[in-house]
Design the sequence.
């Protein structure tokens, strides 16, 4: 390990077989070794490692040592017995952590996860939290009433941790499956509701689709008639356009001669324009060349002037450098002269220094001789003084000891008296605490019962709340379904779907037909179960319109015919009411349900109409039997499914219309509205109930929280009482032990006082003799000290002389070196200046040549400029002549164009007439094109060239408008409803399959959990049985009698039951482990630990000061058992007990040579 807690430097522990002890003083870092093993095995709780956060395990610095930024620990496990499920014989586990919080794990130097290490050690007893590592503080945890730590040891020994892990994983999957199942059930409910709504939308869509197809056919026919009309108008216009085009051609021949002449002059004009542009381009080039020459002459002049200035500056600098060289040479001569003089002075100073140094060496020899003599005398005096001081110290200490022991004797007597008083008080307190404990136990039992009852009530309220939530959801689904049905029926009633066109027309235009009262379907009401039967029995009569009287009926019929409304049937109410029908008697037959007219619910004055229409219609249970029954001949029969057998031998069956039943639509809508209102009221009531329950739950939870707080408070008081009682018992036993020890101390103190008085009498003569000898030694030391002082003064004086000589010599040498440096620096400067002078001469030659070159270029440029100026003047004259000819050609072209314009006026009047005719023709073509485009855009179709159309254009327009109104009455339609319906139906089917799969998965997971529990339960019971037997034997062995037992209590399931430890040492009948002393608790825990080891021994075991509470007798028992197990298990014991150290095969000592930094020292006894 390196950098782990107090181990700043790398340390290696080689833990061999047998028993290895780790010893050292308190605070040296022994337990840090235990923490390091826990940590490398994957311990994640920083509190277990005695820290606040995981970074606290990194060495945090010490005196003269900086904190480290990383720590790492490596543990090598020999798997020679195959305890670990891995194929390697040696397994190296490593862990490293950085101050940044990053952590690394390795397995055989390969990076791995913490899970890999946990899986490797699971159920082996070797994990970070297994029973292979036991600390003194864990003994109290193992024996505490909270048996989680105890149970974990048993489960580790049983090897069921992996089953626990599998069970947790399976339970997580089971919970996830349950959640998914609930979620998918909710989704299925929503999708089913959506599919139902889409079914209604699909019916509207199909109706819309049918009307759209009719509209397409009529629209194409209407477009065909319009195009045919437009083409008839276009024929005479096309003839006119041909005549105008012929006249236009004859006029164009006359104007062609002038245009040819105009074209010729335009060619000449263009040629002259190109020549003029070429001349102007040449002129521009010459001008640019002229400017370039002038610019170059100016640049060359400036460069020549600059060269002259640079030559003058170089000459001045050359002269200045010559003066500097002369001055430097003069300085060099002076430096060499001064250096020679200083060299002679340096030789003289060196001779003087050597003479003074020889004198100092002689004085030094004399001084050391005197000093040596003084040291010898002082040593002799010190030896004598030490002897006397030792005797006097012994005398003084003995005197002080006598006084101290007398005071101790008085103090011990006082303490004995105090301890006896405390013992009486402690006994009284224990009795009081035991009475209070009984009272609190009863109070806690009552409060727990009250809390459990309150929890049951809370659970009932929660169940009721959940029931209301589910009921509210179901009401919402029903409400939405009823709303969809209501919308559907409203739409049917408003659009009069299912009625003939004539009936629809009359109903839609009710204001134009004031005498119309409605239809048969509207005035006849019937129960839902008879609806199909009645619709079939009525047949087309259900479409009949009812008018006030016959006159109104005839007027309505005339208006409908005039409007070409379509099929229409009317019954005059007045005449129908007065019409009397002789009804036949209904045969007695069990197959007959009722006469149709008897089940009709309508106004009393319409009963005669019902009997007239439905008086001979019988509703039967079985149509086949009724049809073959001779007693029913002459009757019209219909069953509840709508199958029909007429008296005229016509047999038919009813197919449900896409528009639903005609009879009772309005009544059905009213019923739906009533149901919807009831559901809304029920829904509001449910919401109010939910609010009330939520308030009750809130109040109840507050009450339960108070009860729980009271239980916690009582439990805390009881725990505090137990703690106080245990503390008082410990205090009582401690007081008795203290009294016994104080009496022994009193006897020992009296003995020491007597012995000390005898020693004082022997020491007095020896001290007086030592004082006389010491006075003689002091006189000799004083004389020798005076001689050393005199010689020392002479030595100091000579050292000062020598120092002055040396300083003078160093000053002369420094001056000489400075002059040599100045001389060499001056020579270097002369070389640099001469090099610069040569550069100046070379630059002057180059600039002189450049000046001559620039002068020649300027002369040549001026000559070239004169030639260019002459050429520019010549070009200007030529351009002026060309421009005059160019203007004359332009004027000729203008005259010819005037002639052509006069001829064009005659042609324009002709063209105007041609344009008017062409415009009209194009307008008609555009109309035809617009009609074609409209049809193409609306229906993606082409109007045929030939089409047989029976209706006129006006009739078709009326039909198209009528169809469009019907489409508008349907309202907006979801055009993608078919795809949505198919998609959601498939989704619903897929979700239902998923739900079935989840139900199967839930059952499989439940079976898996049961299998895991069965295996784990069996292994745990077997292991518990063996451990219990071993515990009884080992308890008797350690305590030499008594009673020890292990029991499972509480839950009947062994995996959930509490493990109770019974421990009654010989002669005691305590009922609680809390009443055991610290030593008895330690022996009980050790008995349990070794009982587990007998069942499933761990390859290694670490015991951290578990022997601290044991006395020597029990330590012998403890070490005896350790030796028995040492053959199978490697023990590492942190201890302060010498008897435990005696059985060790190897020992490691932990020290802190530097404060805060631990170091290992090993000892082997083999």
Sequence:
């Amino acid at each position: 390990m390196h950098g782990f807690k107090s181990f700043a430097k790398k340390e290696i522990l080689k833990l061999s077989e047998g028993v290895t002890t780790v010893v050292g003083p308190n605070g040296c870092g022994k337990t840090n070794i235990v923490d390091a093993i826990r940590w490398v095995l994957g311990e994640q709780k920083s509190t277990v490692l005695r820290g606040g956060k995981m970074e606290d395990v990194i060495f945090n610095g010490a005196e003269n040592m900086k904190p480290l930024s990383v720590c790492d620990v490596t543990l090598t496990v020999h798997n020679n017995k195959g305890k670990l499920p891995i194929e390697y014989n040696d397994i190296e586990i490593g862990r490293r952590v950085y101050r940044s919080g990053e952590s690394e794990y390795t397995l055989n130097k390969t990076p791995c996860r913490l899970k890999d290490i946990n899986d490797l050690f699971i159920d082996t007893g070797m994990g970070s939290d297994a029973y292979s590592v036991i600390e003194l503080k864990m003994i109290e945890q193992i024996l505490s009433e909270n048996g989680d730590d105890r149970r974990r040891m048993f489960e580790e020994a049983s090897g069921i941790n992996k089953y626990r892990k599998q069970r947790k994983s399976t339970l997580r999957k089971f919970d996830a499956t349950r959640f998914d199942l609930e979620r998918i059930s909710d989704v299925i409910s929503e999708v089913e509701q959506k599919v139902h709504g889409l079914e209604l939308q699909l019916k509207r869509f199909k109706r819309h689709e049918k009307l759209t197809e009719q509209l397409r056919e009529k629209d194409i026919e209407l477009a065909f008639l319009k195009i045919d009309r437009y083409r008839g108008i276009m024929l005479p216009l096309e003839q006119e356009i041909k005549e105008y085009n012929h006249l236009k051609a004859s006029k164009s021949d006359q104007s062609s001669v002038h245009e040819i002449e105009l074209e010729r002059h335009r060619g000449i004009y263009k040629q002259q324009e190109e020549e003029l542009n070429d001349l102007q381009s040449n002129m521009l080039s010459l001008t640019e060349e002229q400017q370039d020459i002038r610019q170059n002459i100016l640049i060359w002049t400036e460069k020549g002037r600059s060269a002259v200035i640079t030559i003058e500056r170089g000459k001045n600098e050359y002269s200045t450098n010559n003066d500097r060289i002369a001055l430097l040479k003069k300085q060099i001569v002076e430096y060499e002269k001064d250096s020679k003089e200083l060299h002679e002075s340096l030789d003289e100073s060196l001779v003087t220094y050597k003479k003074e140094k020889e004198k100092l060496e002689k004085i030094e020899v004399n001084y050391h001789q005197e000093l040596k003599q003084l040291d010898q005398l002082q040593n002799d005096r010190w030896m004598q003084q030490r002897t006397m001081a030792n005797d006097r110290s012994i005398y003084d200490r003995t005197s002080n000891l006598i006084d101290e022991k007398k005071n101790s004797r008085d103090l011990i007597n006082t303490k004995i008296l105090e301890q006896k008083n405390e013992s009486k008080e402690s006994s009284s307190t224990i009795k009081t605490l035991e009475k209070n404990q009984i009272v609190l136990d009863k109070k806690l039992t009552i409060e727990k019962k009250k809390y459990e009852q309150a929890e049951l009530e809370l659970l009932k309220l929660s169940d009721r709340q959940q029931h209301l939530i589910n009921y509210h959801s179901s009401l919402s689904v029903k409400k939405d379904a009823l709303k969809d049905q209501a919308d559907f029926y409203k739409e049917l009633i408003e659009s009069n779907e299912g009625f003939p066109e004539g009936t629809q027309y009359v109903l839609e235009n009710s204001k134009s037909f004031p005498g119309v009262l409605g239809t048969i379907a509207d005035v006849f009401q019937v129960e839902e179960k008879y609806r199909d039967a009645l619709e079939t029995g009525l047949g087309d009569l259900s479409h009949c319109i009812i008018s006030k009287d016959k006159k109104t009926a005839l007027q309505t019929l005339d208006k409908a015919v005039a409007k070409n409304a379509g099929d229409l049937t009317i019954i005059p109410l007045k005449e129908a009411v007065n019409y009397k029908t002789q009804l036949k008697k209904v045969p007695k037959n069990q197959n007959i349900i009722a006469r149709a007219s008897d089940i009709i619910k309508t106004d009393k004055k319409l009963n005669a109409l019902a009997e007239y229409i439905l008086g001979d219609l019988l509703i039967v249970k079985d149509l086949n039997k009724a049809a073959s029954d001779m007693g029913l001949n002459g009757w019209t029969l219909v069953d509840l499914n709508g199958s029909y057998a007429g008296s005229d031998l016509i047999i038919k069956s009813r197919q449900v219309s896409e528009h639903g039943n005609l009879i009772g639509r309005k009544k059905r809508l009213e019923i739906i509205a009533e149901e919807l209102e009831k559901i809304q009221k029920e829904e509001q009531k449910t919401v109010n109930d939910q609010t009330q329950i939520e308030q009750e739950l809130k109040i109840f939870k507050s009450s339960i929280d108070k009860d729980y707080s009271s239980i916690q408070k009582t439990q805390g008081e009881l725990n505090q009482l137990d703690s106080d009682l245990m503390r008082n018992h410990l205090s009582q036993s401690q007081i008795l032990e203290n009294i016994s020890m104080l009496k022994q101390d009193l006897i020992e103190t009296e003995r020491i006082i007597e012995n000390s008085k005898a020693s004082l009498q022997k020491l007095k003569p020896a001290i007086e003799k030592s004082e006389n000898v010491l006075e003689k030694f002091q006189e000799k030391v004083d004389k020798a000290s005076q001689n050393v002082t005199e010689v020392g003064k002479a030595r100091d004086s000579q050292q000062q002389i020598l120092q002055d000589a040396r300083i003078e010599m160093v000053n002369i040498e420094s001056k000489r070196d400075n002059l040599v440096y100045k001389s060499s620096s001056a020579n270097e400067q002369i070389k640099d200046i001469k090099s610069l002078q040569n550069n100046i001469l070379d630059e002057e030659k180059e600039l002189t040549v450049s000046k001559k070159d620039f002068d020649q270029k300027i002369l040549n440029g001026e000559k070239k400029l004169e030639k260019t100026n002459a050429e520019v003047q010549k070009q200007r004259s030529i351009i002026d002549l060309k421009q005059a000819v160019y203007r004359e050609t332009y004027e000729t072209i203008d005259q010819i164009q005037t002639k052509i314009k006069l001829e064009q006026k005659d042609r324009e009047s002709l063209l105007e007439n041609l344009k008017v005719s062409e415009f009209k023709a194009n307008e008609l073509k555009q109309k035809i094109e617009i009609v074609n485009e409209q049809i193409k855009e609306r229906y993606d179709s082409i109007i045929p060239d030939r089409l047989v159309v029976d209706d006129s254009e006006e009739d078709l327009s009326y039909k198209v408008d009528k169809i469009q109104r019907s489409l508008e009455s349907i309202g907006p339609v979801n055009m993608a409803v078919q795809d949505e319906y198919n998609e959601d139906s498939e989704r619903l089917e897929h979700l239902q399959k998923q739900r079935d799969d989840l139900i199967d998965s839930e059952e499989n997971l439940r079976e898996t959990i049961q299998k895991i529990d069965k295996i784990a339960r069996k292994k745990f019971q077997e292991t518990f049985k063996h451990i219990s037997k071993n515990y009884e034997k080992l308890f008797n062995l350690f305590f030499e009698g008594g009673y020890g037992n292990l029991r499972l209590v509480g839950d009947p399931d062994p995996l959930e039951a509490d493990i109770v430890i019974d421990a009654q040492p010989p002669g005691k009948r305590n009922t609680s482990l809390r009443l055991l002393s610290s030593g008895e608790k330690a022996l009980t825990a050790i008995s349990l630990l070794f009982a587990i080891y007998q069942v499933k021994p761990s390859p290694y075991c670490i015991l951290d000061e578990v022997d601290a509470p044991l006395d020597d007798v029990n330590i012998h028992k403890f070490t005896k058992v350790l030796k028995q197990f040492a053959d199978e298990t490697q023990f590492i014991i942190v201890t302060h007990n010498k008897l435990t150290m005696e059985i060790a095969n190897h020992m490691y000592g932990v020290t802190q040579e530097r404060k805060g930094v631990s170091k290992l020292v090993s000892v082997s006894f083999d």
In short: The two ends are 25 Å apart (CA to CA).
